[in-house]
Amino acid sequence: MIRQTPLLAALIALLAASAARADTVEASSTTLLLLGQEPRYRGGSRPELVTVAPVFEILTITARDIENGFSDDLRIVLSTWGAIDLAERRWDAGTDGGRLTGDVTTGYVQAKLLDRRLTLRAGRSMIATGVARMIQLDGGQAVVVVPIARAQLSLSAYAGVPTSQRFQTRDGLKSWNPVGGTLAYGGRVAAGLPIPGVAGRGFELGASANVVNDGGETVRQEVGADFRVQPLRRSNLTLAGFGTFNLPEQRVAEVSAALTTTVTSKLHVTADFKRVEPSLLLSRDSILSVFTTSVWTELGAGATYNLGRGLHAGVDAHLRAEPGADGSGSDLGSDLRARVSWESGRTIAGLELFNLDAYANGYFGTRVWARRNLGKAFVTGDVLGTFFREDVNGQGESVTGTLTAGYQLPLGFTAVLSGSAGMTPYLEQNYDLMAKLAYNQTYRTAEVR
Amino acid sequence: MNRLALPAVLAATFGIVLAGAGCSLKPQRSEARQAEPKYVFPHAPHVEGEVACVACHAGIADAKKLEAGIRHVQLPKTPSTDDRCNGCHDTDVTVEVPARNEPFRIRIDHAQHVAQVKDCRTCHVKLPEPGDQESPAPPMATCTSCHDHQADFNAAKCTPCHVDLKGYVPQTAFSHAGNWMKVHGSMARPTAESCAACHDQTSCAECHASQVTPARPSVIYPEAVDKGFIHRGDYVSRHIIDARADPASCRSCHGSAFCYACHTEQGVTTSAVNVRDPHPPGWATDTGPKGHGDAARRDILSCAGCHDNGASSTCVACHQMGGVGGNPHPGSFLRKHRGEADPSSKAMCSACHTQPLP
Fold it and tell me: What's the total number of domains in chain A?
């Protein structure tokens, strides 16, 4: 990302300057002070605790429908942040470097052309379609939709430099990020048949490809196929599926499918399946990528039900098949979750239960949370407890709790003060404090065309 | 270049933009909508009495656009003498219709629609009554009863009719009910552009761009207790179990660099200044379930968290050709690559295969 920074900055700065003439501008600023402790191992028999106190400034701006002479819905989306560590450097700031850190989380310009059939995106954005696997690029993307009789053909292409871990610190191999590399490109072609009558009804079938190079070496080379079907007139029953084929290894890396449907106005059901070979997610220039072909599979379903009087309940159960002890065969496990939430007037509350039974270990957990609005003020509470099947760092449970209070100030500002405490396997007692001043505002022009 | 340079430039830009925006735009807060006066006019009896809408909504039939502050309402001043009203009104009723300034969320040419549709009730199936805070929007089914928007919908062409889709909750297609977090990835892969109609990528990036985000969402928004944020609470303790239970899930967002940064601080990476061995006795040499071989064949991504270091990987020292570690490749690998050209000519293979295969 470093080499592209000046160009990207200039581009965004230039276009952002026109955002004042946008129809809608959403702006937010969050100033955040955290105070807490982290363990550090500096030799001896046990780690020591250090105090971390980072201050973050997070800025986000979205400007839509910017007036211009060449495109519809010209849009600028930008989210960026900077931080300074007032005490010890926090662990997720990396293992070297100074106290100042920062990055661009998202920053792109989007324009629609040709009667909105062509979408162009440039800057730092994610590619969500097809086999790209949410790769984030400093680059560009084009999506064009071509109507052919009642059907439509969709073509997309992208190219750019994958964003790297901001605290990338090692030498040696270049790519050890799943999306790392020096150049990524790919695209997707899809044919769709929309069926009139119900929003979203129709069929779509797509094929996609993604290639990532790193210093001339190919580290990812995948093709994939996906589909989406919403066949019924009187139901939103939707089935989507996806498969990835790893070209260098000539193996199927992932197959997944999901179904979602609203059975009645109160009952919603989902189901999903996934089969994945994790080793194929490693860069192809990783030594470790040639050691195994283990397969992991998951199948399950969930439902949510509106019980009335503000009460909602949901359950989700998945069966999991992991590789056996030596990487062959299968070991069956499960992932179960349940949730109840309640809303009444100014109060919302919820209870969550979850149980993971996996080969290496498992846990049972519960989370209780609540929020009460008091005019312009609000308070929230959140307690999370986890009980491990086998001890983690010699301890069988972890309990953390957070209390938060906030107040809506004039002019779109909100002040929040939050404190957490807990007993965890890695910190016998830990306390964290957070103070936040957030500004959230949406601006619109007085006239809407 | 210092990584702070770009955020600094953007922060300055942000300020400029806001300053400019403040000159020409009005802030649009949720309270602003709440501050709007409630509706006062009883529509139901007038619809029942088949009073023409244009009797009160003067000018709407010629309006080519909706404008905030202009509601096209002009009630007859003396209904008792107005032929359109005096069938019911014996006396003059004074109703003060308060001004409303909330911008419209829909763009529509009423002049064109009224000329063709004639009956306003075709679209306005429900009208606001006294005490209502907001006017019920015409359901989109009324639009699709004439316009074939299916292709537009599938191509996510929601504008220009919709100003934006903020605040709309999908009810039919893409309904976010149920365990949406679990299935949203599968649903989005074929239709990401439809998602983009409502969601700017800032919302995706909070969870999916872990390499560039400042902190977990639950840290930044502790007050959002009802949200299904990822990695809540003491996730440090749970991540060991989750990572082994579903390594691909971690790997889809986090690269080894992420693991490495913290593991180095804890002294459990090979390059840490003070190294402590996280592996049990016999890990390097045992060939059974207590050894590293079975563990690596089972879950190589856990190894990669620390050892994915290219040619300088610790694996190479023992597993290179002629080394004591033997051949680590699974059977399928050998079947696929048998007979290929000299592996020592490939960059990655040459780390172990320093010489051509015999």
Answer: 2
CA–CA min distance A245, chain B (Å): 15
Number of CB pairs, chain A paired with chain B, less than 8 A apart: 588
DSSP characters for B38-61? PP---HHHHHHTT--GGGTSTTGG
Residue of B nearest to A324 (CA): B298
How far apart, in whole angstroms, are the C-alpha atoms of residue A389 and residue A392? 9
Per-residue pLDDT tens digits for B235-284: 999 998 999 898 888 887 887 777 877 888 888 877 677 777 888 888 88
Residues B164 and B129 reside in one and the same domain: no
User: Within an 8 Å CB–CB cutoff, is residue B225 touching chain A?
Assistant: yes
Do A172 and B297 count as a contact with CB atoms less than 8 A apart?
A: no
What residues of B are in contact with residue A406 (Cβ under 8 Å)? Answer: 223
Would residue A86 count as lying in a domain? yes
- Tokens 């404190």 found at: A419
Nearest residue of B to residue A168 by CA position?
A: B257
Interface residue B276 vs chain A (CB under 8 A): yes
Q: Do A95 and A133 lie in a common domain?
A: no
Domain boundary among A56, A76, A99: A99
A176/B241 touch (CB, cutoff 8 Å), yes or no: no
Question: Nearest CA to CA, how far is B146 from chain A (Å)?
Answer: 10
Q: How many domains does chain B have?
A: 5
* Same domain? B37 vs B133: yes
Q: What is the pLDDT of residues A305-349, one digit of tens each?
A: 999 999 999 999 999 999 887 777 789 999 999 999 999 989 999
Residue A390 maps to a domain? no
* Domain endpoint, select from A99, A122, A142: A99
The string of pLDDT tens digits covering residues A288-297 is 888 888 899 9
Q: What is the pLDDT of residue A301?
A: 96
pTM: 0.83
Per the prediction, chain A carries an average pLDDT of 86
Q: Which two tokens stand for residue B245?
A: 């239970």
d(CA B305, CA B273): 18
- On whether both B224 and B239 belong to a single domain, the answer is no
Interchain pair A34, B309: CB under 8 A: no
Using the Cβ of B239 and the Cβ atoms of chain A, whether some distance falls under 8 Å is answered with: no
CA distance B121 to chain A (A): 20
Cα B270 to Cα A249: distance, rounded to the nearest angstrom: 29
Query: How many other CB atoms are found less than 10 A from the CB of residue B172?
Result: 16
Question: Closest residue of A to B245, CA-based?
Answer: A358
CA distance A18 to B44: 46
Beta-strand (E) ranges in A94-194?
A: 100-113, 118-127, 135-148, 151-162, 183-194
Q: What Cα–Cα distance (Å) separates residue A56 from each residue in A97, B63, B209, B220?
A: 17, 48, 17, 10
Chain-chain contact of B266 with A117 (C-beta, under 8 angstroms):
no
Return the residue matching tokens 């599938």.
B154
Q: Closest residue of B to A440, CA-based?
A: B29
Mutation target among A287, A400, A404 for the B interface, most CBs of B within 10 A? A287
Whether residue A154 is found in the same domain as residue A53: no
Q: Which of A9-23, B177-191, B218-232 has the highest mean pLDDT?
A: B218-232
List the structure tokens of A85.
């560590």
Q: Which of B1, B200, B262, B353 to mutate to probe the A interface, most A CBs <10 Å?
A: B200
In-domain check, residue A161:
yes
Complex confidence, ipTM: 0.88
Shortest CA gap B257–chain A (Å) = 6
Q: Residue A49 belongs to what domain range?
A: 1-99
Residues A257 and A182 in one domain: yes
Q: What are phi and psi of A279, to 5 degrees?
A: -65, -25
Is A55 within a domain? yes
Residue type, A235: S
Q: Say if B316 is an interface residue toward chain A (CB within 8 Å).
A: yes
Which pLDDT score, from 0 to 100, does residue A171 have?
41
Parent domain of B326: 316-358
Query: Closest Cα to residue A298, out of A346, A334, A263?
Result: A334
